[in-house]
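G., the chain you wanted modeled:
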Amino acid sequence: MVIAFASFWMLHDYPDTAKFLKPDERRVLQARLLLDNDGCSHEYKRRFIRDAFLDWKIWVSAFMFHAALMPVYTFSLFSPTLTANLGYAAATAQLVSYLVCIM
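Predicted structure as tokens:
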């Protein structure tokens, strides 16, 4: 909490507001930000949405993300039910399934 509170005064939005930078360092950082922003569009186009849905790399990464998380969520959501069916009471089933998940 202390670090989060102090970061309000420690973090700077842009090189112009950073008082700890020297003028030449500030110019270098601003030039790097301009170069980094060079390929980005500054307007909304429907083509960007269409391109995102038609890009195969996005579909593959979405499939990999869901394939990686599905077993984790399946186990954590159904393990209390499976443990309760073994004859444990509800509170004990929750505790046993929690212990199995963290091990």
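The chain has five helices and no strands.

Shout if anything looks off.
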